[in-house]
Amino acid sequence: MEKILVLNSIEDNLHYAIIENNKLVELFSDEEKKLTGNIYLGRVEKVVNALDAIFVNIGEKKNGFLRIKDIPEKYYDYFSVKEIKEGSKILIQVKKDPTGTKGPQLTANISIAGRYLVVFPFSNVNGVSKKIESEDERQRLYKIANEISNNNGFGVVIRTAAEGLNEKYIYSEAITLKEKLDDLLSNFKRKRKIQILYTEESLIDYILRERLTKEVTQVITNNIKHIEVIRKYLKIFPKRPKIEIIDGDSFEYTNVNKYFKELIKRTITLPSGGEIIIDKTEALTVIDVNSKHFTKGLNQQETAFKTNYEAVEEIFRQLRLRNIGGIVIIDFIDMNSEENKNKILEKVNEEIKKDKSKIEIFGFTKLGLLELSRKRTIKSFFENYVSTCPVCGGSGFIQSPRFLLKEIFAKIENAPKEAKEVIIKLHPYMKNYIDKSELKKRKDLNYHIHFTHTDPKTFEITWKI
Protein backbone atom coordinates (compact mmCIF):
# COMPACT_ATOMS: atom_id res chain seq x y z
CA MET A 1 0.00 0.00 0.00
CA GLU A 2 1.25 3.47 -0.90
CA LYS A 3 0.87 5.81 2.08
CA ILE A 4 1.86 9.49 1.90
CA LEU A 5 2.09 11.94 4.81
CA VAL A 6 1.62 15.51 3.56
CA LEU A 7 2.71 18.46 5.75
CA ASN A 8 1.45 21.89 4.70
CA SER A 9 2.72 25.07 6.40
CA ILE A 10 0.64 28.17 5.68
CA GLU A 11 1.74 31.30 7.54
CA ASP A 12 1.82 30.23 11.22
CA ASN A 13 -0.46 27.23 10.76
CA LEU A 14 0.43 23.61 10.09
CA HIS A 15 -1.92 21.14 8.43
CA TYR A 16 -1.40 17.48 7.63
CA ALA A 17 -3.07 14.95 5.37
CA ILE A 18 -2.67 11.23 4.83
CA ILE A 19 -3.19 9.71 1.40
CA GLU A 20 -3.54 5.94 1.04
CA ASN A 21 -3.53 4.45 -2.48
CA ASN A 22 -4.39 7.87 -3.98
CA LYS A 23 -7.31 8.40 -1.58
CA LEU A 24 -7.37 11.08 1.11
CA VAL A 25 -8.12 9.40 4.45
CA GLU A 26 -7.09 11.96 7.11
CA LEU A 27 -7.02 15.74 7.28
CA PHE A 28 -6.11 17.97 10.22
CA SER A 29 -5.79 21.70 10.77
CA ASP A 30 -4.15 23.39 13.77
CA GLU A 31 -6.10 26.64 13.38
CA GLU A 32 -8.21 25.66 16.37
CA LYS A 33 -6.36 25.29 19.68
CA LYS A 34 -6.06 21.63 20.71
CA LEU A 35 -6.46 20.96 24.44
CA THR A 36 -6.46 17.16 24.42
CA GLY A 37 -3.43 15.76 26.22
CA ASN A 38 -2.73 18.99 28.12
CA ILE A 39 -2.25 18.55 31.87
CA TYR A 40 -3.42 21.32 34.22
CA LEU A 41 -3.37 22.43 37.79
CA GLY A 42 -7.12 23.01 38.06
CA ARG A 43 -9.39 24.32 40.77
CA VAL A 44 -12.56 22.44 41.78
CA GLU A 45 -15.51 24.77 41.13
CA LYS A 46 -18.37 22.45 41.99
CA VAL A 47 -18.94 18.87 43.14
CA VAL A 48 -22.25 17.50 41.84
CA ASN A 49 -23.01 14.34 43.80
CA ALA A 50 -26.14 13.58 41.78
CA LEU A 51 -23.97 13.25 38.67
CA ASP A 52 -20.97 11.72 40.46
CA ALA A 53 -19.02 14.48 38.74
CA ILE A 54 -16.87 17.54 39.35
CA PHE A 55 -16.63 20.78 37.39
CA VAL A 56 -13.07 22.06 37.25
CA ASN A 57 -11.73 25.49 36.30
CA ILE A 58 -8.65 24.97 34.11
CA GLY A 59 -8.36 28.56 32.89
CA GLU A 60 -10.13 27.92 29.57
CA LYS A 61 -13.43 29.43 28.37
CA LYS A 62 -15.52 26.60 29.82
CA ASN A 63 -15.07 24.56 32.97
CA GLY A 64 -14.01 20.97 32.43
CA PHE A 65 -16.17 17.97 33.35
CA LEU A 66 -14.57 15.25 35.49
CA ARG A 67 -16.36 12.05 36.49
CA ILE A 68 -15.55 10.79 39.99
CA LYS A 69 -14.82 7.35 38.50
CA ASP A 70 -12.00 8.95 36.47
CA ILE A 71 -10.04 9.67 39.66
CA PRO A 72 -7.93 6.57 40.40
CA GLU A 73 -7.51 5.26 43.96
CA LYS A 74 -3.76 5.72 43.60
CA TYR A 75 -4.35 9.47 43.03
CA TYR A 76 -5.83 9.84 46.55
CA ASP A 77 -2.98 7.81 48.04
CA TYR A 78 -0.24 9.70 46.19
CA PHE A 79 -1.46 13.14 47.32
CA SER A 80 -2.71 11.92 50.74
CA VAL A 81 -6.27 13.20 50.25
CA LYS A 82 -9.48 11.45 51.32
CA GLU A 83 -11.90 13.33 49.05
CA ILE A 84 -12.00 16.07 46.43
CA LYS A 85 -13.55 19.25 47.85
CA GLU A 86 -14.75 22.49 46.25
CA GLY A 87 -11.93 25.04 46.11
CA SER A 88 -9.16 22.46 46.25
CA LYS A 89 -6.51 22.17 43.55
CA ILE A 90 -6.51 19.09 41.35
CA LEU A 91 -4.16 17.58 38.77
CA ILE A 92 -6.14 16.72 35.65
CA GLN A 93 -5.70 16.06 31.94
CA VAL A 94 -7.98 16.90 29.01
CA LYS A 95 -9.11 13.68 27.34
CA LYS A 96 -11.56 15.28 24.90
CA ASP A 97 -11.70 18.79 23.45
CA PRO A 98 -14.77 20.99 24.07
CA THR A 99 -17.52 20.57 21.47
CA GLY A 100 -20.59 22.74 20.93
CA THR A 101 -21.98 23.75 24.32
CA LYS A 102 -19.92 21.17 26.22
CA GLY A 103 -16.67 21.95 27.98
CA PRO A 104 -13.60 19.71 27.84
CA GLN A 105 -13.81 16.21 29.32
CA LEU A 106 -11.18 15.56 31.97
CA THR A 107 -9.48 12.67 33.72
CA ALA A 108 -7.27 12.46 36.81
CA ASN A 109 -5.76 9.23 35.47
CA ILE A 110 -3.13 11.29 33.71
CA SER A 111 -0.68 9.92 31.17
CA ILE A 112 2.30 11.06 29.13
CA ALA A 113 2.75 9.53 25.70
CA GLY A 114 5.93 8.84 23.82
CA ARG A 115 6.35 7.17 20.46
CA TYR A 116 6.63 3.67 21.96
CA LEU A 117 5.15 4.00 25.45
CA VAL A 118 2.40 5.65 27.42
CA VAL A 119 3.07 5.98 31.16
CA PHE A 120 0.43 6.38 33.90
CA PRO A 121 1.67 7.61 37.32
CA PHE A 122 -1.60 6.70 39.10
CA SER A 123 -2.00 3.20 37.67
CA ASN A 124 -0.30 -0.15 38.20
CA VAL A 125 -1.82 -1.76 35.10
CA ASN A 126 0.45 -2.65 32.19
CA GLY A 127 -0.56 -3.50 28.63
CA VAL A 128 0.37 -3.92 24.98
CA SER A 129 -1.47 -2.40 22.02
CA LYS A 130 -4.20 -4.72 20.72
CA LYS A 131 -3.04 -3.97 17.19
CA ILE A 132 0.08 -6.06 17.84
CA GLU A 133 -1.22 -9.55 17.01
CA SER A 134 1.84 -11.84 17.28
CA GLU A 135 1.63 -13.67 20.61
CA ASP A 136 5.43 -14.02 20.85
CA GLU A 137 5.87 -10.28 20.28
CA ARG A 138 3.15 -9.46 22.81
CA GLN A 139 4.88 -11.59 25.44
CA ARG A 140 8.24 -9.92 24.73
CA LEU A 141 6.72 -6.45 25.08
CA TYR A 142 4.73 -7.39 28.21
CA LYS A 143 7.99 -8.43 29.83
CA ILE A 144 9.56 -5.06 28.97
CA ALA A 145 6.47 -3.17 30.23
CA ASN A 146 6.49 -5.06 33.54
CA GLU A 147 10.19 -4.40 34.09
CA ILE A 148 9.80 -0.65 33.39
CA SER A 149 6.74 -0.53 35.66
CA ASN A 150 8.43 -2.36 38.54
CA ASN A 151 11.50 -0.11 38.34
CA ASN A 152 9.55 3.15 38.23
CA GLY A 153 6.25 2.56 40.03
CA PHE A 154 3.93 3.59 37.21
CA GLY A 155 1.66 1.83 34.72
CA VAL A 156 2.98 1.25 31.19
CA VAL A 157 1.22 0.62 27.88
CA ILE A 158 3.39 -0.38 24.92
CA ARG A 159 2.29 1.27 21.67
CA THR A 160 2.01 -0.24 18.19
CA ALA A 161 5.16 1.56 16.99
CA ALA A 162 7.23 -0.61 19.37
CA GLU A 163 6.43 -3.80 17.44
CA GLY A 164 9.68 -5.50 16.43
CA LEU A 165 11.75 -2.67 17.92
CA ASN A 166 15.08 -3.16 19.69
CA GLU A 167 14.32 -2.91 23.42
CA LYS A 168 17.06 -0.30 24.01
CA TYR A 169 14.88 2.34 22.29
CA ILE A 170 11.94 1.47 24.53
CA TYR A 171 14.02 1.65 27.73
CA SER A 172 15.56 4.93 26.58
CA GLU A 173 12.15 6.48 26.05
CA ALA A 174 11.00 5.24 29.47
CA ILE A 175 13.82 7.26 31.09
CA THR A 176 12.74 10.41 29.19
CA LEU A 177 9.08 9.97 30.16
CA LYS A 178 10.02 9.34 33.81
CA GLU A 179 11.91 12.67 33.87
CA LYS A 180 8.87 14.47 32.43
CA LEU A 181 6.59 12.87 35.02
CA ASP A 182 8.89 13.80 37.91
CA ASP A 183 8.98 17.44 36.74
CA LEU A 184 5.20 17.50 36.33
CA LEU A 185 4.42 16.10 39.78
CA SER A 186 7.00 18.35 41.43
CA ASN A 187 5.52 21.45 39.77
CA PHE A 188 1.99 20.50 40.82
CA LYS A 189 3.03 20.13 44.45
CA ARG A 190 4.84 23.50 44.49
CA LYS A 191 2.32 25.65 42.62
CA ARG A 192 -1.13 26.94 43.56
CA LYS A 193 -2.48 29.02 40.66
CA ILE A 194 -4.60 27.53 37.86
CA GLN A 195 -2.21 26.84 34.99
CA ILE A 196 -1.12 24.43 32.30
CA LEU A 197 1.68 22.17 33.53
CA TYR A 198 2.30 20.00 30.48
CA THR A 199 1.66 20.16 26.75
CA GLU A 200 3.05 18.58 23.60
CA GLU A 201 6.47 19.92 22.58
CA SER A 202 5.23 21.11 19.17
CA LEU A 203 2.60 20.20 16.61
CA ILE A 204 5.18 18.83 14.17
CA ASP A 205 6.48 16.49 16.91
CA TYR A 206 2.92 15.35 17.66
CA ILE A 207 2.15 14.67 13.98
CA LEU A 208 5.36 12.76 13.38
CA ARG A 209 5.03 10.76 16.60
CA GLU A 210 1.44 9.76 15.89
CA ARG A 211 1.33 9.57 12.08
CA LEU A 212 4.82 8.82 10.78
CA THR A 213 4.53 5.04 10.97
CA LYS A 214 6.54 2.33 9.21
CA GLU A 215 3.73 2.02 6.63
CA VAL A 216 4.41 5.57 5.32
CA THR A 217 6.20 5.39 1.96
CA GLN A 218 6.63 9.13 1.33
CA VAL A 219 6.66 12.41 3.27
CA ILE A 220 5.96 15.68 1.43
CA THR A 221 6.48 19.08 3.08
CA ASN A 222 6.76 22.72 2.03
CA ASN A 223 8.79 23.72 5.10
CA ILE A 224 12.55 23.05 5.08
CA LYS A 225 12.59 23.33 8.90
CA HIS A 226 10.65 20.05 9.05
CA ILE A 227 13.44 18.02 7.44
CA GLU A 228 15.69 17.79 10.51
CA VAL A 229 12.78 16.78 12.75
CA ILE A 230 11.59 14.17 10.24
CA ARG A 231 15.07 12.63 10.00
CA LYS A 232 15.25 12.40 13.79
CA TYR A 233 12.11 10.26 13.80
CA LEU A 234 13.34 8.13 10.89
CA LYS A 235 16.62 7.07 12.53
CA ILE A 236 15.34 3.65 13.59
CA PHE A 237 13.13 2.91 10.57
CA PRO A 238 14.35 -0.26 8.79
CA LYS A 239 13.05 1.13 5.50
CA ARG A 240 12.90 4.90 5.35
CA PRO A 241 10.26 6.73 3.31
CA LYS A 242 11.16 9.12 0.55
CA ILE A 243 11.24 12.78 1.71
CA GLU A 244 10.25 15.48 -0.76
CA ILE A 245 10.37 19.22 -0.11
CA ILE A 246 8.44 21.50 -2.43
CA ASP A 247 7.79 25.20 -3.00
CA GLY A 248 4.23 26.42 -2.63
CA ASP A 249 1.14 24.76 -1.21
CA SER A 250 1.63 21.05 -0.42
CA PHE A 251 -2.12 20.44 -0.57
CA GLU A 252 -2.31 21.92 -4.07
CA TYR A 253 0.70 19.86 -5.13
CA THR A 254 -0.87 16.60 -3.93
CA ASN A 255 -4.46 17.48 -4.99
CA VAL A 256 -5.66 17.38 -1.36
CA ASN A 257 -7.53 20.68 -1.86
CA LYS A 258 -9.90 19.09 -4.37
CA TYR A 259 -11.27 16.88 -1.56
CA PHE A 260 -12.29 19.78 0.70
CA LYS A 261 -15.79 20.07 -0.74
CA GLU A 262 -16.30 16.33 -0.26
CA LEU A 263 -16.17 16.96 3.50
CA ILE A 264 -19.55 18.68 3.50
CA LYS A 265 -21.29 16.29 1.13
CA ARG A 266 -24.15 14.39 2.71
CA THR A 267 -24.26 11.79 -0.08
CA ILE A 268 -21.25 9.90 -1.42
CA THR A 269 -21.52 7.73 -4.53
CA LEU A 270 -19.91 4.28 -4.55
CA PRO A 271 -18.10 2.85 -7.62
CA SER A 272 -20.87 0.34 -8.41
CA GLY A 273 -23.60 2.98 -8.36
CA GLY A 274 -24.71 2.61 -4.75
CA GLU A 275 -24.37 5.43 -2.21
CA ILE A 276 -23.91 6.21 1.45
CA ILE A 277 -25.73 9.07 3.20
CA ILE A 278 -24.18 10.59 6.33
CA ASP A 279 -26.37 12.44 8.85
CA LYS A 280 -24.83 13.84 12.03
CA THR A 281 -26.84 14.88 15.09
CA GLU A 282 -25.76 16.06 18.54
CA ALA A 283 -26.17 12.52 19.90
CA LEU A 284 -24.89 10.26 17.12
CA THR A 285 -24.02 9.80 13.46
CA VAL A 286 -26.27 7.73 11.19
CA ILE A 287 -24.96 6.31 7.91
CA ASP A 288 -27.45 4.86 5.44
CA VAL A 289 -26.40 2.53 2.61
CA ASN A 290 -28.50 2.50 -0.57
CA SER A 291 -28.09 0.36 -3.68
CA LYS A 292 -29.79 3.07 -5.78
CA HIS A 293 -29.15 1.32 -9.12
CA PHE A 294 -28.96 -2.45 -9.01
CA THR A 295 -25.93 -3.87 -10.82
CA LYS A 296 -26.99 -5.82 -13.88
CA GLY A 297 -26.87 -9.59 -13.62
CA LEU A 298 -27.27 -9.75 -9.83
CA ASN A 299 -30.36 -10.61 -7.80
CA GLN A 300 -31.50 -8.42 -4.92
CA GLN A 301 -29.56 -10.26 -2.17
CA GLU A 302 -26.36 -10.37 -4.24
CA THR A 303 -26.71 -6.66 -4.95
CA ALA A 304 -27.32 -5.94 -1.24
CA PHE A 305 -24.16 -7.82 -0.23
CA LYS A 306 -21.97 -6.30 -2.95
CA THR A 307 -23.15 -2.75 -2.18
CA ASN A 308 -22.76 -3.24 1.58
CA TYR A 309 -19.29 -4.74 1.18
CA GLU A 310 -18.21 -1.87 -1.07
CA ALA A 311 -19.73 0.66 1.36
CA VAL A 312 -17.68 -0.57 4.34
CA GLU A 313 -14.37 0.73 2.96
CA GLU A 314 -15.86 4.14 2.11
CA ILE A 315 -17.70 4.45 5.45
CA PHE A 316 -14.54 3.86 7.48
CA ARG A 317 -12.60 6.20 5.22
CA GLN A 318 -15.19 8.90 5.91
CA LEU A 319 -15.02 8.27 9.68
CA ARG A 320 -11.28 8.97 9.54
CA LEU A 321 -11.51 11.82 7.03
CA ARG A 322 -14.25 13.69 8.92
CA ASN A 323 -12.90 12.49 12.29
CA ILE A 324 -16.38 11.41 13.35
CA GLY A 325 -16.53 10.35 16.99
CA GLY A 326 -19.07 8.99 19.43
CA ILE A 327 -21.90 6.62 18.55
CA VAL A 328 -22.22 5.59 14.90
CA ILE A 329 -25.16 3.61 13.49
CA ILE A 330 -24.81 2.05 10.02
CA ASP A 331 -28.02 1.05 8.26
CA PHE A 332 -26.87 -1.50 5.70
CA ILE A 333 -29.18 -2.84 3.01
CA ASP A 334 -31.09 -5.82 4.48
CA MET A 335 -29.29 -9.16 4.12
CA ASN A 336 -30.92 -12.49 4.94
CA SER A 337 -27.71 -14.51 4.93
CA GLU A 338 -25.82 -14.80 8.23
CA GLU A 339 -22.77 -15.78 6.20
CA ASN A 340 -22.91 -12.46 4.33
CA LYS A 341 -23.35 -10.55 7.59
CA ASN A 342 -20.22 -12.23 8.96
CA LYS A 343 -18.31 -11.30 5.79
CA ILE A 344 -19.35 -7.67 6.32
CA LEU A 345 -18.09 -7.82 9.93
CA GLU A 346 -14.79 -9.32 8.73
CA LYS A 347 -14.41 -6.41 6.29
CA VAL A 348 -15.27 -3.95 9.09
CA ASN A 349 -12.54 -5.44 11.31
CA GLU A 350 -10.08 -5.21 8.42
CA GLU A 351 -10.82 -1.48 7.96
CA ILE A 352 -10.59 -0.77 11.71
CA LYS A 353 -6.91 -1.76 11.67
CA LYS A 354 -6.16 1.24 9.43
CA ASP A 355 -7.56 3.70 11.99
CA LYS A 356 -5.42 5.16 14.81
CA SER A 357 -8.56 5.93 16.84
CA LYS A 358 -10.09 3.29 19.09
CA ILE A 359 -13.22 1.74 17.56
CA GLU A 360 -15.54 -0.65 19.39
CA ILE A 361 -17.99 -2.79 17.38
CA PHE A 362 -21.21 -3.86 19.15
CA GLY A 363 -22.55 -5.95 16.25
CA PHE A 364 -25.85 -6.02 14.39
CA THR A 365 -29.09 -5.18 16.20
CA LYS A 366 -32.32 -7.13 15.65
CA LEU A 367 -33.24 -4.49 13.07
CA GLY A 368 -30.04 -5.15 11.14
CA LEU A 369 -28.27 -1.93 12.19
CA LEU A 370 -24.54 -2.09 12.90
CA GLU A 371 -23.63 -0.26 16.11
CA LEU A 372 -20.15 1.04 16.88
CA SER A 373 -18.37 3.78 18.78
CA ARG A 374 -15.26 5.67 17.72
CA LYS A 375 -13.08 7.59 20.14
CA ARG A 376 -12.37 11.11 19.04
CA THR A 377 -10.31 13.56 21.07
CA ILE A 378 -9.93 16.66 18.89
CA LYS A 379 -12.11 18.75 16.58
CA SER A 380 -12.39 17.49 13.06
CA PHE A 381 -11.35 19.41 9.95
CA PHE A 382 -15.08 19.23 9.08
CA GLU A 383 -16.06 21.16 12.23
CA ASN A 384 -13.35 23.76 11.62
CA TYR A 385 -14.37 24.38 8.03
CA VAL A 386 -18.18 24.27 7.91
CA SER A 387 -20.81 26.63 9.29
CA THR A 388 -24.54 26.49 9.76
CA CYS A 389 -26.15 27.54 6.50
CA PRO A 390 -27.68 31.07 6.67
CA VAL A 391 -30.14 30.14 3.93
CA CYS A 392 -31.56 26.81 5.16
CA GLY A 393 -31.35 27.84 8.83
CA GLY A 394 -29.33 24.88 9.98
CA SER A 395 -30.82 21.88 8.20
CA GLY A 396 -27.71 21.59 6.04
CA PHE A 397 -24.09 22.76 5.91
CA ILE A 398 -21.98 25.04 3.78
CA GLN A 399 -18.29 25.85 3.75
CA SER A 400 -17.43 28.14 6.65
CA PRO A 401 -16.19 31.72 6.04
CA ARG A 402 -12.68 30.43 6.81
CA PHE A 403 -12.97 27.88 4.00
CA LEU A 404 -14.16 30.48 1.46
CA LEU A 405 -11.40 32.90 2.52
CA LYS A 406 -8.86 30.12 2.02
CA GLU A 407 -10.11 29.70 -1.57
CA ILE A 408 -10.11 33.47 -2.19
CA PHE A 409 -6.55 33.82 -0.85
CA ALA A 410 -5.41 31.01 -3.16
CA LYS A 411 -6.98 32.80 -6.16
CA ILE A 412 -5.35 36.12 -5.18
CA GLU A 413 -1.92 34.53 -4.80
CA ASN A 414 -2.26 33.08 -8.31
CA ALA A 415 -3.59 36.30 -9.89
CA PRO A 416 -2.51 37.14 -13.46
CA LYS A 417 0.80 39.05 -13.42
CA GLU A 418 -0.71 41.99 -15.30
CA ALA A 419 -3.75 42.31 -12.97
CA LYS A 420 -4.13 45.72 -11.27
CA GLU A 421 -7.64 45.48 -9.85
CA VAL A 422 -9.90 42.70 -8.69
CA ILE A 423 -13.67 42.58 -8.17
CA ILE A 424 -14.93 40.03 -5.64
CA LYS A 425 -18.65 39.24 -5.28
CA LEU A 426 -19.71 37.52 -2.06
CA HIS A 427 -22.89 36.53 -0.23
CA PRO A 428 -23.94 39.16 2.40
CA TYR A 429 -23.17 36.77 5.27
CA MET A 430 -19.44 37.24 4.51
CA LYS A 431 -19.49 40.97 5.43
CA ASN A 432 -17.97 40.44 8.88
CA TYR A 433 -15.29 38.04 7.72
CA ILE A 434 -13.41 39.57 4.80
CA ASP A 435 -10.73 42.20 5.34
CA LYS A 436 -9.07 44.16 2.52
CA SER A 437 -5.83 44.47 4.49
CA GLU A 438 -5.59 40.66 4.65
CA LEU A 439 -6.08 40.50 0.89
CA LYS A 440 -3.38 43.13 0.30
CA LYS A 441 -0.91 41.02 2.27
CA ARG A 442 -1.33 38.36 -0.42
CA LYS A 443 -1.06 40.76 -3.36
CA ASP A 444 -0.98 44.56 -3.55
CA LEU A 445 -3.97 45.24 -5.84
CA ASN A 446 -7.00 47.52 -5.79
CA TYR A 447 -9.84 45.49 -4.29
CA HIS A 448 -13.56 46.06 -4.93
CA ILE A 449 -15.80 43.87 -2.79
CA HIS A 450 -19.56 43.58 -3.42
CA PHE A 451 -21.96 41.58 -1.25
CA THR A 452 -24.41 40.82 -4.03
CA HIS A 453 -23.67 37.15 -4.68
CA THR A 454 -26.72 34.94 -4.05
CA ASP A 455 -24.99 31.63 -3.31
CA PRO A 456 -23.38 31.43 0.18
CA LYS A 457 -21.29 28.44 -0.94
CA THR A 458 -19.37 30.25 -3.69
CA PHE A 459 -17.98 33.61 -4.84
CA GLU A 460 -17.18 35.39 -8.11
CA ILE A 461 -13.83 36.96 -8.90
CA THR A 462 -12.98 39.17 -11.89
CA TRP A 463 -9.59 40.64 -12.80
CA LYS A 464 -9.03 44.06 -14.35
CA ILE A 465 -5.84 44.34 -16.39
- In the sheet with the most strands, the strands line up as 16-17-18-19-21-20
Strand content: 25-35%
> Largest sheet at a glance?
6 strands, mixed
Rg from C-alpha positions? 25 Å
How many alpha or pi helices? 11
> Average pLDDT, to the nearest integer?
88
**Number of separate structural domains:** 5
Estimate percent helicity.
25-40%
- The residue ranges in which pLDDT falls below 50 over 5 or more consecutive positions are none
Q: Specify the overall morphology.
A: globular
- Work out the number of β strands: 26
Helix/strand/pairing class, anyone?
alpha+beta
Question: Gap between N and C termini, in Å?
Answer: 48 Å
Layout of secondary structure:
Blueprint: E1 3-10, E2 13-20, E3 23-29, E4 39-48, E5 53-57, E6 64-67, H1 73-79, E7 89-96, E8 105-107, E9 112-113, E10 117-120, E11 127-128, H2 135-152, E12 155-158, H3 167-190, E13 195-198, H4 203-211, E14 218-221, H5 226-234, E15 242-245, H6 250-253, E16 267-269, E17 275-280, E18 284-290, H7 300-321, E19 326-331, H8 338-352, E20 359-364, E21 369-374, H9 381-385, E22 386-388, E23 397-399, H10 401-413, E24 421-425, H11 436-442, E25 446-450, E26 460-464
Parallel strand pairs: 1-14, 6-8, 11-12, 14-15, 18-19, 24-25
Antiparallel strand pairs: 1-2, 2-3, 4-5, 4-7, 4-13, 5-6, 7-8, 9-10, 10-12, 16-17, 17-18, 19-21, 20-21, 22-23, 24-26
Helix pairs in contact: 4-5, 7-8
